[in-house]
Amino acid sequence: MSREGQRLGCGGAGGIGIGVLSLDMLGQVLDRLREPRDHKACRLVSHALERAEAAHRRALRALRREPLPRLLRAFPALEQLDLSACASLDDASLAAAVAGADLGIRRVCLARASGVGWRGLEALVAACPRLEAVDLSHCVGAGDREAAALAAAAGLRELRLDKCLGVTDMGLAKVAVGCPRLEKLSVKWCREISDIGVDLLAKKCRELRSLDISYLQVGNGSLKSISYLGKLEELAMVACSCIDDEGLELLSKGSNSLQTVDVSRCDHVTSQGLASLIHGHNFLQKLHAADCLHEIGQCFLSKLATLKETLTVLKLDGLEVSVSLLEAIGEGCDNLVEIGLSKCSGVTDEGISSLVARCSHLRTIDLTCCNLITNNALDLIADNCKMVECLRLESCSLINEKGLDWIATCCPNLKEIDLTDCGVNDAALQPLAKCSELLILKLGLCSSISDKGLAFISSNCGKLVELDLYRCNSVTDDGLAALVNGCKKIKLLNLCYCNKITDGGLIHLGSLEELTNLELRCLARITGIGISSIAIGCKSLIELDLKHCYSVDDAGLWALARYALNLRQLTISYCQVTGLGLCHLLSSLRSLQDIKMVHLSWVSIEGFEMALRVTCGRLKKLKMLSGLKTVLSPELLQMLQSCGCRIRWVNKPLVYKD
Amino acid sequence: MSSCSSPWSTMDGNQNDICGQSANLTSNPLYYQFGLDNPLFGMGIQQPFPPSTSPFGASSSTNIPHMDWKPAMMLDNLTFIEEKIRQVKDVIRSMVDNGGQLPGRTGDIVQQQQAVNADLTCLIVQLISTAGSLLPSLKNSSFLSHPPAGHMDMANHVGSSSSMVPYTTISEENNEVMCSPEDYDELFKGLTDGTVEGGIEIDNVLVEEQDTKDGDEGGDAGMDGENLLPGSYELLQLEKDEILAPHTHFCSICGKGFKRDANLRMHMRGHGDEYKSPAALAKPPRDASTEHAMVKRYSCPFVGCKRNKLHKNFQPLKTILCMKNHYKRSHCEKSYTCSQCHTKKFSVLADLKTHEKHCGHVKWLCSCGTSFSRKDKLFAHVALFQGHTPALPSEESKVSDQVGRVGSHQEPAKLTSSMGSFMWDNSSGDDTVLDIKGLDSCGDDFLSTANFGSFNFSFGPLDEIKGNPSEGSFAMLPSEHFQSVREKGEN
Fold it and tell me: What was the ipTM of the complex prediction?
């Protein structure tokens, strides 16, 4: 229980102290709680707070479908409903949950809820007359009918249909006609949508402020239609290979108020097109042109200077840059907050020097794979950009502790640093420990990092949320012990191939209550004992990767089945588990939605068959050996697929790794 | 002849005749001839089409001013015609009495037929010339500017024309023709030799009009873009049965009918080497005189129709094909049902075929029920009208939800499907036998008996598509399912 929770619960026993406060007041109090765990603590400790929560709760994230009807009635003030992680949610359960209720829900997230189809959506829309935002992304089975069901929500303002692979122009047209007040729409990856659909959208939804047409096969015609959207501020068209300079010119002649444009990976866009785009939109704030430009023309640079006041984000990943170019950018855009130069060849210390000389507001600097830069560049960044929060230096192998020391000294706000494959050692981590705000630290492939380095981190970086120690194979159990001492907030931890780690280390990790994602790939020494302590201790665990953990057996699965009730994603490929353990695991874990089980040599066909049958349609993703495709019963596979489960069949030989 | 005034019996008669049934022969000599190899009959039908081509002379228009109207000569002519008709009737009756053999194909009666043919030719020519002599006088009395009176007159003429001399009204007078019966043979020869341009003109017209048929229904297409003053063109009105007659070109030897003269010429090759010469096969050149001839326009025989000349906002039809299609589309039963969707009905076979080309492909439907062959057209429509939205095609799952609906329409759908194929077989069969492209009405009598199925049941496209998914959407879920879920929720 957090500090706040304790403080509020102090009058707890009978709840009398708190009970004298009005529900409104208590609601205000509860609104100030951030962690869901604290809410739970409050709820448990006082009836008054429980009542207040019932009356005031606005957001709900359901993990299982069974309590959904009760929850929706228990919280009448609910405005946001997140069903993205709700296991085995299907049309019938969703419809039953919302049936007859007049819900005030405004926002619903159904991302990856692949079991929900148009019937469920229709029921939802009918039950939530005030619906404003729906996220249906990654429901790969969703198509026009689902879009049509959503289109019945006339008040819809935001809609995400990313990767709803079945949505075509027809579905888009349904939405365009049905939801004229739409302000934000994402149809990323809906590959069936063409210019015709976009054109109709632009004609019908005049209120659009944000539009994402990334990965669509639409052409310049779409941009012409879009250019008439007067209120459009954000436009993403990543990897639209049919769009070229002509389209951007059409866009620039339009009447939008574009502030953010993303033309990343648009192969046919050149700096000429971007220049014309800038010409038409003098207030552009964010320009993403990653992996689309090959060279920068003078016209683009001169246009870029006209954005001097406004431009804050510029991404030029994959471009061949020169000192003069970086200088021009530095002079032209001195309000830059974020610059992306990932994989840009030709970025040197000199270039960085001319860039940062005037861009003192930079907060995010991406220098991934700019492997010419040295400590000098880091010094220059540290000297000029005191506000830096995020520094990505993957594969910059010429840097070392000296550069990082200056960064850590000058940039106290540093929240994220990526040192993957930089070859840094423990000495580099010592200065980094000065950054007490550090949230994300990536040290993958830095094999010289050892327990000592982790001890430095743990000493001061108590806010650390994500730590990547991929292939840091000098790290041992002691290092983990030191780590969990100081960094108790870690949610994401990657220990893949740190093969010195044993059950002892995992027992330490068991004290990380907030850990959600844990990757333990190829830790051949860990067994069921270590897994048990993680399952018992890490109550928030959502994703666990045990691939190639050859010593993990049924005992580990039993522990997971018994304790890791929130586990949603699990990889147990190559583990020494049997059919019985698998059956038990899959029948017990009611939140499990994604399991990878390749090369489970000890599991018989009947074991797989039984195990998959007991999942009762909870699985949404499944990875298995393709040999099983023919031996598993067709009804089973059909049942799985009808529940929205996608099966990935792999065919690879059994190879043991160390 | 009398039976010609009733269009449907005519149709049946034609049909039967084509099919080789001789049942009507006794009662209706016309059809006998029709079945017989009467070249002139065929030619007679052709004659209306060539605008202003007179079969009887090089340039008929020049003759008009000099003609004058002699009642005595007229009477003579009519008497002659009467006499001739009686003779022909006798001959034919004797043929019928001789055993009612199937006409046409047996060699025995060929000679007889030729005799009859000659007589009929004679008759036709006589009638044409007689009536032709009448025409300019009608014109002189400016009947066009006084529609009611003129109409009556015209109707009479056209009415009589429906049998032997169908289109006398349109051929201009030619004095020379009238004089000697000996000329008839020569004329006949001329006709069959193809020296007189008739068929080929029609051919052109037909070909040209294929393109314009769509506009026909549009309301203004008949006079699209042109502003002909009444009287500045020649107005013609055909009778229903003429409009509905299937063919316009007939083989002078075997009687087979064709829609196009070019097809007829190809067919003729089979009748002897003389038809194989390049000259016989070549498309007869267009007569120069046609260029200067008066423009022709057509009136729909359906009184009350906007295309009927009695209508106060009368808009004439440009060509004979326009008129045919207009009449069928607007005033006839839509007796062709699409064998795939069982929904769309057409009265013009070509329309059905056009539809069937696209039917079964993805149809682009609007919520208002309008369907489009192209997606962009649908989207343009949706963009234009507030509240219209594309209708999603029906899905199997969706259909199975609506158990009641399925029960109500599945049966007739099956019925028509079988019917459809039946019809189709027949019409295509006719097609091959008659070697006719786009045969317009061959399926008519099959349809008229088969119609009940397709007509009784009709559901608009929207019945299937729109539905109301919100009701009964969950019908397939067992109610216990809900119950159990609710219980779980309450626990």
Answer: 0.84
